[in-house]
Design brief:
The complex is a heterodimer. By secondary structure, chain A is of the alpha+beta class. Chain A has helices at 2-30, 33-62, 69-74, 81-86, 92-114, 122-143, 169-184, 186-197, 203-235, 245-270, 274-297, 311-332, 334-337, 349-380, 389-409, 420-443, 448-479, 483-493, 495-516, 630-648, and strands at residues 384-387, 521-528, 532-535, 538-550, 553-563, 569-573, 576-580, 591-595, 597-600, 604-614, 619-628. In chain A, the strands form two sheets. In chain A, strands 3, 4, 5, 6, 7 and 8 form a six-stranded antiparallel β-sheet that branches. A four-stranded antiparallel β-sheet of chain A has the order 2-11-10-9, with no helix packed on it. Residues 302-308 of chain A have low confidence and may be disordered. Residues 124-129 and 132-144 of chain B have low confidence and may be disordered. Chain B has helices at 4-27, 41-47, 124-127, and strands spanning 35-39, 53-59, 65-66, 73-80, 83-90, 102-110, 113-121. Chain B has two domains: 1-30; 37-127, OB fold (Dihydrolipoamide Acetyltransferase, E2P). Helices cover 24% and strands 33% of the residues of chain B. Chain B starts with a helix and ends in a 17-residue tail after the last helix. The chains are: A alpha+beta, B alpha+beta. Chains A and B meet through helix 3, helix 14, strand 1, helix 15 and strand 8 of A and helix 1, strand 1 and helix 3 of B.
């Protein structure tokens, strides 16, 4: 019954979405305020109905109503409650509904926030938002309906269960964060289209757009980082980024969005680059839809993609529609977007931003090229070529290092033109620090990208520290504050600038972590109880293989003692080999799964995998990896998030 | 003031250089796993490839044979329609590797045997499989 209600809710939402678009369109022609009001209410109703549909599906999942196909496919009676809940985005149709759910949250927030302040833009904003909602409503109504009944002529006593890989706490947060980012780009896009349509290009909408952008960009960043964290903790290949098509799909809008965040500052401060920013907003949003297409269409084989479906052409059609409409509108507003201002010098901050933008976009293109290369090569040369991670690394490492370099240079440039004196004053210390680092590394026999990366990291960190030091020092002299208060006030008075610097520090730490990858070592071995193996100066002794039955799986646990060169015990590791669905009589349906154990320090991770067990002979097959500096990636990610929060924090209203 | 043309040229130049770099890297990958041809078993038999290649197919029923001496080594047959390709793989086998599984292998074809060093399984199928009735669950004993 409830399932039918869910289906009906989606039907109704679809109908109301069309009504909302029509009402807003007529309002724009006639100016009759009542139509605008009804239009907004219809739009609100679309969102509320989408919430309702999502709540119904969640309820069906929680009570394990296996009459619904989706519930039977992605949960079982044994699935823990939290993962029954997260099964909402585990499959095709559920995740499309989830997209709609998030978009509806944003739509409601947009309506509540702007219905008075942005009267002129709102009708168009709503038309764009509801059109995107309509697109997803069409999908969940006609192509992938999450409320479809189970097709079976017997009573389903239990569902198939959730993939054990997805039964991880990170997996409960990673997709929603990613979606909050992906979907969120719809709002700045809607505002930009509205601004162009209404020829209203003042600073107000720009400020709205910037705040939104920063927020959704933060969500996307957290989503991407959590994805890497999950892969590292769960997938058992010892890495966090594989350049999988779907990872790339989330990375491309991030790159475009990051470019946009930088160049939008030029528009705010200098009223320049308006055309370019508009292009970036359109590209970023299109890449978000394209990313969803890559994940959901099955056109690329990847760990993330579901089975091949009919969604592909529909998504591509929508991407095409977005591009044609947005660029069509843009070409009619070119006069309005053109700026008379000019960049004055190569050594200006404007110019720095511009080149940073170009590099970001070129990198985005490089990732797109690699991602689509199998399709391109098949079309052009007739042979399908698969693209591996080494290809992406080869292309992107140098580009990434150039970006790292610009991270150091950019903030030291001043608007309009940097004088020679200030150039020398600002860069002497950082350059010397970087060179000293390079020399030290050279003497340690380290060469190549590793040397460049670490030296650039020192260079960039020094520039940021000197920037902070300069600010703090001047506050100490002028305001007579102590250093700590000066630091705090510095952050408070200029959130976006110093927040940005903190983000850069996070990025540098992440680069340090990435570079550690060059020193990874690993070893695979079979081992009996009380035998030992060694790797990189550490000794690994197996002292026990245990067995344990748990609610939804059966586990073999290898207890390993890790000792350093002096025979001192460092840690005990307990990697597990789990069998999910172990009570199923059909061995083909049982699902083995390796649960890792990682000993993590800032210096390195000791990463252990229990590959398989030979009970007859008492042998455990173990893989050990030593991955230096991985924690710097997560630590850098944390700083990155903190920096963005500083930049986002709304300034306190000063009392006059 | 710098002429805007100079900026334009600088940007075009930059894009050109990076474009060239991407093109060069595509033509000269620095790693054997960077760009690999994906063939069907049929194409492999027809052209007798010497390059590193990637193949997909099913693990033929009951064809997996583990090496008694080396745990990491195994032989199995890859099935594509009627065609059968014998495969030798050394390394850790993924959790879902079993008879009938859909796999992707990468390696070299030498003297009638495909020497694979990468073995991946497609994982989605199990969770998109057929639903079952009550009988397949009424089991009390734990059987692994």
């Amino acid at each position: 019954m409830t399932a039918v209600l869910g289906g009906l809710t989606l039907n109704l939402a679809l109908g109301l979405a069309i009504v909302a678009i029509i009402l807003h369109t007529i309002y724009l022609r006639t100016g009759d305020g009542r139509l605008f009001l009804s239009g907004q209410r219809a739009a609100l109703a679309v969102s509320l109905l989408s919430f309702f549909a999502t709540i119904i599906l969640t309820q069906l999942l929680i009570v394990s109503n296996f009459d619904v196909d989706y519930v039977a496919h992605y949960t079982s009676r044994e699935t823990p409650l939290i993962y029954k809940f997260t099964a909402l985005w585990a499959g095709q149709s559920g995740s499309l509904l989830f997209w709609l759910f998030i978009l509806s949250i944003y739509a409601v927030v947009t309506i509540l926030q702007n219905q008075r302040s942005q009267l002129k833009l709102m009708p168009w904003v709503m038309i764009v938002l509801v059109t995107v909602q309509l697109f997803f409503l069409i999908l969940v109504n006609f192509v992938a309906n999450p409320f479809m009944p189970t097709e079976a002529d017997f009573v389903i006593s239990n569902g198939l269960g959730l993939n054990p890989l997805l039964q991880n706490a990170t997996m409960a947060i990673h997709p929603p964060m990613l979606y909050l980012g992906y979907v969120g780009f719809t709002v700045p896009f809607a505002f930009s289209i509205a601004a162009m349509a209404q020829k209203e290009m003042d600073a107000l909408w720009m400020r709205t757009v910037r705040q939104w952008l920063l927020f959704v960009w933060l969500m996307l960043s957290i989503g991407v980082m959590l994805g890497g964290w999950w892969a590292y903790q769960e997938l058992g290949w010892g890495g966090y980024w594989a350049w999988d098509p779907v990872e790339n799909a989330s990375f491309m809008p991030w790159l475009a969005g990051t470019a946009l965040l930088h160049s939008i500052m030029i528009q705010e401060k200098k009223d320049m680059l308006k055309v370019w920013n508009m292009v970036l907003i359109i590209i970023t949003f299109t890449l978000c839809i394209f990313g969803t297409f890559l994940t959901r269409s099955g056109v690329m084989s990847s760990v993330h993609s579901f089975t091949v479906s009919s969604l592909g052409p529909i998504f591509l059609g929508f991407v095409f529609f977005i591009l044609v409409v947005s660029f069509g509108l843009m070409s009619r507003r070119m006069k309005l977007l053109r700026s008379n201002k000019r960049i004055e010098s190569f050594s200006s901050r404007e110019s720095g931003f511009l080149f940073n933008n170009v590099i970001f976009i070129v990198m985005c293109f490089a990732v797109l090229w690699g991602t689509l290369f199998p399709v391109i090569s098949e079309a052009v040369r007739g042979t399908k070529i698969t693209v591996g991670a080494p290809f992406f690394n080869q292309i992107n490492i140098p580009i990434g290092l150039v970006l790292l370099f610009l991270t150091g240079v950019g903030p030291l440039l001043v608007w309009r033109k940097t004088s020679k004196q200030s150039f020398i004053r600002n860069f002497t210390l950082p350059v010397i620090a970087g060179l000293v680092m390079a020399l030290v590394l050279y003497l340690m026999d380290i060469r190549g990208y590793v040397l460049i990366s670490f030296s650039l990291s020192v260079f960039v960190l020094t520039t940021i520290v000197t920037e902070f030091a300069k600010g703090i020092r001047s506050r100490i002299t002028v305001q007579k504050e102590n250093a700590l208060i000066a630091f705090w006030q510095l952050l408070r008075k200029n959130r976006s600038r110093y927040g940005g610097y903190i983000v850069h520090v996070g990025i540098v730490f992440m680069f340090i972590g990435f570079t550690g990858h060059a020193f990874d070592t690993e070893k695979e071995f079979g081992i009996k109880t009380s035998e030992s193996e060694s790797l990189s100066g550490y000794t690994f002794t197996l002292y026990k293989i245990r067995e344990e039955e748990r609610p939804n799986h059966y586990a073999y646990i290898a207890d390993i003692i890790v000792e350093d060169e002096n025979g001192k015990e460092i840690v005990k590791l307990h990697p597990e080999k789990r069998i999910y669905f172990h009570r199923n009589p059909d061995p083909e349906r049982r699902q083995p799964h390796s649960e890792l154990d990682i000993y993590s320090t800032m210096k390195q991770d000791i990463y252990s995998i229990f590959n398989s067990v030979d009970l007859e002979n008492g042998v455990a097959y173990i893989k050990i990896m030593i991955n230096p500096l991985v924690n710097w990636v997560w630590f850098g990610g944390f700083i990155f998030v903190m920096g963005t929060v500083v930049a986002l924090w709304p300034p306190k209203k000063e009392k006059k | 003031m710098v002429s805007q043309n100079k900026f334009f040229i600088a940007i075009i130049g930059l894009v050109f250089v990076v474009g060239l770099w991407i093109w060069w890297a595509t033509e000269n990958p620095n790693h054997e796993q960077a760009l690999v041809k994906f063939l069907s078993v049929e194409q492999l038999f027809k052209d007798n490839q010497n390059d590193r290649i990637r193949l997909g197919g099913l693990v033929a029923d009951k064809s997996i044979k583990l090496d008694d001496n080396n745990y990491l080594s195994c032989n199995f047959d890859l099935q594509e329609g009627e065609l059968i390709l014998p495969i030798h793989f050394v390394g850790v086998r993924p959790d879902l590797f079993k008879n009938g599984a859909e796999v992707i292998v990468e390696g070299l074809y030498v003297n009638g045997i495909f020497e694979a060093d990468i073995l991946q399984t497609k994982c989605a199928s199990r969770f998109e499989g057929d639903l079952r009735d009550a009988e397949s669950y009424n089991l009390d004993e734990v059987s692994i």
